[in-house]
Amino acid sequence: MQHTRSEEELKVFISKLRIFLIACQDASHEWLMNEFPDLFIIESKKTYLGMFGGIDPISDLAWVNENIRFNHGPLCEVYPPEGMGCTGVCEGDSPAFLYLVSANRGINNPEDPTQPSWGGQYVRKGTTNHYVDGPGASTISRWRPQFQAEFKERANWISPMK
């Protein structure tokens, strides 16, 4: 992208992008953060773990089976019962989406990841436009009752049986 635009065009282009990186899934994290200090990036190396609620009664396998997987139609039937070492809700990438859902509900401003949100809370890295893990997983898990209610509501909404 920097080879096909002028410096000013590149600045404008970068100002429009929003990146939410979770768990270092590929080698792009460090390169993006080193190469583009003005690029808006949220990097969650550990905060996303707040989504893993397999031992919590409102996100364990029994809850998922009752409220999502069974009797809610074919889409919900394929919801996985486990993942990444836990059963129930193991939604590691969901904070990227939930960050926007909570903004839509008026909880946070998506331009300020230092605010608490369903996607976590982050701290600014120096003078860059990058935000990295801050207070930790509890900044997501504290919202579990709210986002699980939303998840259940969506499953009921798509269910042909409800």
Tell me what you see in this structure.
With 162 residues, the chain is α/β, with parallel strands linked by helices. The chain has one domain: Alpha-Beta Complex (Inosine-uridine Nucleoside N-ribohydrolase, Chain A). Helices cover 37% and strands 13% of the residues. The protein is built from seven helices and six strands. The strands form two sheets. A four-stranded mixed beta sheet has the order 1-2-6-5, with no helix packed on it. A hairpin with a 2-residue loop joins strand 3 and strand 4. The protein is elongated. The N and C termini lie far apart (48 Å).
Based on CA inertia axes, which overall geometry fits?
A: elongated
Going across the biggest sheet, name each strand in turn.
Answer: 1-2-6-5
Average pLDDT: 91
List the uncertain runs: none
- H/E element sequence: HEHEHHEEHEEHH
CATH superfamily: Ribonucleoside hydrolase-like
CATH architecture type: Alpha-Beta Complex
Oligomer: single chain
What is the CA-CA span between the terminal residues? Answer: 48 Å
Helix content: 25-40%
Task: Tell how many strands the DSSP assignment holds.
Answer: 6
CA-based gyration radius = 18 Å
| Helix/strand structural class | alpha/beta
Number of domains: 1
Could you give a short account of the major beta sheet?
4 strands, mixed
What topology does this entry show?
Blueprint: H1 7-15, E1 18-22, H2 28-35, E2 40-44, H3 61-69, H4 74-77, E3 82-83, E4 86-87, H5 94-104, E5 122-124, E6 130-133, H6 138-141, H7 144-158
Parallel strand pairs: 1-2, 2-6
Antiparallel strand pairs: 3-4, 5-6
